[in-house]
Write a structure and sequence with these properties.
The complex is a heterodimer. Chain A has twelve helices and ten strands. The longest helix of chain A has about 40 residues. The mean pLDDT of chain A is about 85. The chains are: A alpha+beta, B alpha+beta.
Chain lengths: ~400, ~280
């Protein structure tokens, strides 16, 4: 017990002395040390961003879907909501699903393109969302009130500004349904509120109304159809999804996890792949350059290392010195890389959000503690692997021959 | 003219020449299917399949597979298996027409028009829009709305390239400082035997140019190998003919144009501080 207790302070003090010694080696060559650290900081920032990018879109999309408060989306085929055919008997399907004991609420959702016109003649293109079923709405009212009557309409802030209308104004809607194959008659709606939609896209107009009103705007006779249904369970999402699948085998319920999984296999995969490729390239680049930096540095100090060995420094001690130097360069660079990476992530996120159709609240770079852990682990591994070759040079250094060469040279 | 319709492959009937009566073979309309669909369903040219507009298989019709095609790669549908069938438009309309819809009154989603002079596309579109209310004509270039997605992605890649260049420059400077420092004594000797600093700097510049050019050429060779490896991996991973990485001559020239001056400048910058010292100071041990 006492031996172990004695050894621990020794190990700690040796570690501290080694780090101090390595620090002095770095400080003695400030230009190269600074450049090495800055290089690691830049590479580390890129690495950090790639780690944030690899899962960022998925985390952000999950967050967005969770905030909407619906755990299950029901579609007509195994295509994700909005990409497959309509559910033609939407209201009947919603009613029967709502009767299931594991289901709390059901809403029908349908989106069509529409032309919104103000009485004075201003007109804009907009996405018109028709919601049926429960009193819950996917949008958040900012001003005015929610849709209650059949000709009530809520607009997003962009549509309100572009049309220069506020609550109480009248707007004529020319819906473009059935892929534009039909030209239904224009209908007049009353703007009752200004709302924030979950998938609001900068510079794009959105409007919301009831499913019946949208069906009227589309000139549909009979039961309104829906792109998909959204369902809230009483607690057990998987059980509710299974019950829906049993009740309506012709429909396909997606839990949020399943929907995210499908998105990950689809369009989201691009960013994960690019992140993997760039992480690999960045790490290889950092590894190569730190190895070269350390190797050249060690080669320039062979005489000094041989002299230290001759003075009584153990082989282990000089090897640890090289490792500590690598750890200091990578460690300081790695710490600096975090704020740099955060700034870079904001810049890159702004660039990527310039893509058409990207909602305001969706982000490509999202921080999570796991990314920080992976970043630290990868950099530590880089520091260790990069130091292997120079450590080997130092460990195998013939003391007498090196000192002799140093004197003769 | 183009119509997209969700169809259901309800049955694989068999090779027309074998299972179906000979008289029926010529009457079955021909279709093309994607390579991926052929592989999933084990279909080959000459097979007869039944297609239906609904999943119950009602109103199914028999078609003959006349060919298997590689679908045009679509980056927006990466990861999706293209299970697609191409039919002659009259066959598709006949298959999907509702009983209440008289033949000839169906709609199509789009009509592609090839002009004698492609430069007239915008004027032609404006003319059609003016003469035919309810129809929206757009030049193909404008209709490719997803183009801006790729502009943004290009901007993103450029930003990453800029950061990579910055990191490389910093490392390069660190390396050249070390390399120049290693030759401190030799440079001191050259100064002592009478070579002016400008002459040594010129030599360093040429050396830097040579090393940077060799590095740039090696980088291009590496990029070429990576291009092949990355494309092969992702084409296998997503079962697509999409090209993910393409080193064009313009990109190669741009890389060389950045790398060579940068490498040479880093060498000169690192040597500059050294050459400002006196020969004696440099050569002393």
């Amino acid at each position: 017990m006492s031996l172990a207790g004695d050894r621990r302070p020794n190990v700690l003090s040796t570690g501290r002395r080694t780090l101090e010694f390595a620090w002095r080696s770095l400080v003695r060559q400030p230009a190269r040390a600074t450049l090495g650290i800055l290089g690691v900081a830049a590479v580390g920032a890129l690495l950090f961003d790639m780690l944030l990018l690899s899962e960022g879109l998925v985390i952000s999309m999950r967050d967005l879907l969770d905030r909407m408060g619906f755990e299950i989306r029901v579609t007509a085929t195994d295509q994700l909501p909005g990409r497959g055919p309509d559910i033609l008997d939407a209201a009947a399907a919603a009613s029967s699903i709502a009767m299931l004991p594991s289901v709390r609420s059901v809403m029908t959702m349908r989106t069509e393109d529409a032309q919104l016109e103000r009485a004075e003649g201003t007109e804009i293109r907009a996405s018109l969302l028709g919601v049926g079923g429960e009193q819950l709405r996917p949008w958040t009212i900012l001003r005015g009130r929610d849709v209650s009557g059949d000709r009530d309409l809520v607009l997003n802030a962009y549509a309100s500004g572009a049309l220069d209308v506020d609550t109480g104004a009248s707007v004529v809607i020319r819906a473009s349904c059935a892929r534009g194959a039909e030209a239904p008659p224009p209908l007049e709606f009353r703007v009752v509120g200004i709302a924030e939609f979950p998938f609001d896209v900068p510079g794009e107009a959105e409007a919301g109304t009831s499913a019946t009103a949208l069906a009227d705007a589309c000139g549909d006779g009979g039961e309104p159809s829906a792109d998909f249904l959204v369902v809230t369970s009483t607690g057990d999402t998987d059980a509710a999804a299974a019950a829906i699948a049993r009740l309506r085998p012709d429909l396909r319920p997606f839990t949020t996890d399943q929907a995210i999984g499908q998105m990950e296999r689809g369009g989201f995969t691009y960013f994960r792949q690019i992140s993997t490729v760039l992480t690999t390239v960045t790490l290889s680049f950092a590894l190569l350059l730190i190895t070269v930096l350390l190797t050249v540095s060690v080669n320039q100090r062979l005489g000094e290392v041989a002299a230290l060995r001759a003075l009584g420094f153990s082989r282990q001690r000089v090897v640890l010195d090289v490792l500590s130097e690598s750890a200091l360069v990578v460690g300081i660079g790695g710490v600096l890389s975090l704020p740099l990476g955060a700034l870079l992530a904001m810049w890159l996120d702004r660039i990527l959000k310039g893509m058409p159709g990207i909602p305001v609240s969706l982000h490509f770079f999202v921080f999570e503690p796991e990314a920080l852990l992976v970043h630290g682990t990868l950099l530590a591994a880089t520091a260790l692997i990069a130091a292997i070759y120079p450590m080997r040079i130092v460990a195998r250094l013939p003391i007498a021959a090196t000192l002799r060469n140093e004197v003769i040279g | 003219m183009a119509v997209k319709q969700l169809l259901f492959l309800t049955a694989v009937v068999g090779a027309l020449s074998g299972l179906l009566p000979q008289a029926q073979a010529p009457s079955a309309p021909s279709i093309l299917i994607t390579r991926q669909l052929a592989e999933i369903e084990g279909l080959v040219v000459g097979d007869a399949v039944q297609l239906s507009p609904d999943e119950q298989g009602d109103r199914a019709q028999t078609f003959r597979i006349a060919g298997i095609y590689e679908p045009t790669p679509d980056p927006m549908r990466l990861g999706e298996v293209p299970r697609e069938v191409r039919l002659h438009l009259p066959d598709l309309l006949a298959l999907t027409r509702d009983e209440s819809t008289p033949a000839g009154t169906e709609y199509v989603e789009a009509i592609n028009v090839a002009l004698v002079d492609p430069a007239d596309a915008r004027r032609f579109s404006q003319d059609v829009n003016a003469r035919m209310p309810g129809v929206l004509a757009r030049p193909a270039r404008d209709a490719a709305g997803s183009g801006s997605t790729f502009v943004v992605l290009e901007r993103f890649h450029l930003a990453i390239a800029a950061v990579t260049i910055l990191a490389s420059t910093v490392f390069l400077l660190a390396l050249t400082i070390m390399l120049v420092d290693e030759r401190r004594e030799a440079v001191g000797m050259l100064r002592l035997i009478g070579l002016p600093a400008r002459r040594i700097l010129l030599q360093v510049l040429f050396e830097g140019l040579l090393i940077a050019s060799s590095g740039a050429l090696f980088g291009l060779a590496l990029a070429r190998v990576s291009e092949y490896a990355i494309n092969a991996f992702f084409q296998w991973r997503y079962d697509t003919a999409l090209i993910f990485v393409h080193v064009t001559p313009d990109i190669a020239v741009l890389c060389v144009a950045i790398a060579v001056p940068l490498g040479a400048a880093a060498t000169v910058a690192a040597s500059w501080a050294l050459l400002r010292r006196s020969g004696l100071r440099l050569a002393r041990r």
